[in-house]
Amino acid sequence: MSLWSRISNALQGERLNREIEEELQSHIEDAIASGRDPDEARRTFGSILRQREASHSIRVAGWLESLLADVRFGWRQLCRNKVTSAAAVLSLALGMGSCVAAFRLIDALLWRPLPISGSSKLYVLSRKMTGLYGKPAEDGHWATPDFNLMRNAVKDQADLIAISDTDRTDITWSTDDDVEKTHVAYVSGNMFPLFGLEPALGRLLAPTDDRSFGASPYAVLSWDYWNHRFGRDPHVLGRSLHIGDQTFEIIGVGPRDFTGTENGTVTDIFLPVSMSSLATQDSVTWHRTFLMLKPGVNPATALEPLRQHLSAVSHAFEIQCSTCFRDVPQATIDRLLDKQLVFYPAGAGISDLQKDYRRSLGILGLLAALVLLIACVNVANMMTAQAASRAHEMALRISIGAGRRRLVQLILCQSALLALFASVLGALFAAWSAPFVLSLINPPDNPARLALPADWRVLLFGFGLMILIVLLLGLLPALRASAVQPVAALKGGEDPHSPRRLMRGAIALQVAFCCLVLFLSSLFVASFQRLQNRPLGFSADRLLLLETVDAKGPLPVVWNQTAEALRAVPGVNSVAISRWPLLGRIAINSDISINGAPPSLTPAWFLNVSPGWLSTMKIPLVSGRDFRPQDTSPGAAIVNETFVKTFFPGLSPDQDPIGRSFERPANPYQGAVGHYKIVGVTPDVPYRDLREPHRAVFYVPFDEIDDKSVPAGVEFATFAIHTDSQNPLALADSLRQLIAQRHNGLRVSNITTQLDLVRDQTIRERLIAMLAAFFAAVALLLAGIGLYAVLNYSVLQRRREIGIRMAIGSTRAGIVRLVTLDVFLMISLGGCTGVALGFGAARYVASLFYQVKATDADMIALPACAILLTALVATLPAVLRALRTDPTEILRAE
What is the spatial distance between Cα 163 and Cα 187, in angstroms, rounded to a whole number? Predict the structure, then answer.
């Protein structure tokens, strides 16, 4: 018979049995009909049972039939213990779902190859250097003239591709009132052909679009933007879009799957690099440089020579640029020139989101894996106990001829059923949790977008995880069950302590994993709490921020008049202007010179603010005064306390820095110098990052003048508006309309609140802390269930011993010690091991902590106390069961 027929027969056993019975009966009836004696005809066929079994074995796939029988038996075993089985399935489902969700996020952000040809030969160039404050830093951005020199230098072996970061940009389609924010990237014309991409509509950018600055005012839409913004309208070709004073013609739509090289961000519009005003500036590094090896070039032998060649070309370019600096300390120039060029594989894209969340996602994956291991140990303990209780059954199976392979298969089938049901629930949990976790890292004004498809990569990972679970759950119980000695088991001679030793060893392992999860979780939760509760030094409540732009650069008087109009709106308490908000995306520093001395190696950060900005932000003055309307920059300056300590270290505490002066270069290439006189001192407040220590910061007037005392135009600024309402966004629309009506050129580019900017600073810590606390709670729950199961099993197995001890006078304390001593020794061993593992893991993620150390006493005490409390709760039912044991009943049964 064919294999398919045998498999089909194995699946339809009852039908096959009827067919065999009918066939045998038909043969007997034919023999009787031919004249033979009925008894003789039946004797001729021999044993009907043997004939039926022989025919059955020929017509079915025996291995499949036995497997189905074991699956049915495993299902009955699970149904006999519904509560225990349900708990096991839910525990495994939570662990498996967490692991799959973590894999989906890590794969989407770090591992999934870009949908381009030759992604394995794509690299990104970066430079390692010494950054500000002497810390190691890395610069992944390049100047376009430097890029052009390098591209020409290696054109025989590799192609270089320029791709800028994807920035949220204001664009208009018709009038200035029709403004929307889109994600725009500038790319070199060779990107699309080198990536092997074909247009969905029209044409893509080509190398000829890089021929000269400003000569290619073309734009390519991504398929995603074309779909949701234009509904795939083919007539979009030829339309014009406006960015500032530039106009671009849409020439095509990119392929469906390609959304750019920046993971977490979907690029809406691609523009030629040659159309950016930054492309002609030697001193501005603004785009990334990718390298793609030409066909036939071996990466193993070509990358190092290419790196050395590109490093030499770039170094020569930067030396040439450094000769244009004026009044810049030689030590600063040497630091800027001391760089090491490196290559990184970029087949999966490159983005700041990868950099920010690489370790965070690694921790997420580790915690999910540990929770899964704890769940597996729990269920394995349950199955070990079941296997021990089924020793007589296994002995009988061996006695009647069952082989070891069949017994292993029997136990593994039960494990496979648990893993299968858990996989279904885990898949549902992963489908919900991965997008949920992604939403937690999304700032409201610029959400991250990652593709999270349930494709073959995710399915293969889930299948591999299920196989691993089956082996972890069932292999040890299966091997133990199959190694049963029939004679000893049937006589009751098996070592009764052997299962308990295995289960207690598993408890030590489980507690170690649980303690590791608790230890790391306590570090992350404490770090988040301390960062969230860090004193700001200003008030973020009721503060609305309107980021406003005007490409024509109106004079400061226009901005001041608009602020005055906003102050007249009901519900507005005060209005002030700054060039950009605190803790926003922009942060600029400057060299500082004291009394004509060479600039300090330590820079200071600055911000242009209007009079009244300090009071609007609720930043007090330590000494001196606020800016006045007649103050200009250069001229007056307000500094923070760290600025005074950094640049005036000789001042005693009773000396006032008011009236002292400093200089800063307005442009290092021109040598222009701005002179400033300190008129006020403020406390330290965070400038760009809550995690950083306080830096030297100085504030200068919003009104700037050039060296000819001519007011300078302002292209962008932020109105800081303190409102009466607890929800300042309630006034956003009316204030935005007022700004547009007040001055035709001004338009609000972005609306946010200062409180949102503060919260955005803690997104990563909030994510890790919340997930860590969730996994810690689950780990504690699973550990408690495991402890309860082991102790309960131990008490049931030792009822006879406990009864005898109580009969001969053992005290209640002695019974409690008998039941719990070994387990608490395992808990202590596991706890110490978990803390030791925690110290090692904490060193790897120390950069994610804020004012928290792994060696802090409270960080060690918290997991220890949590484990101890859980152990006490878990042991209480088993201790009470032991103390309720009736010696008379036990001895009467004996």
Answer: 4
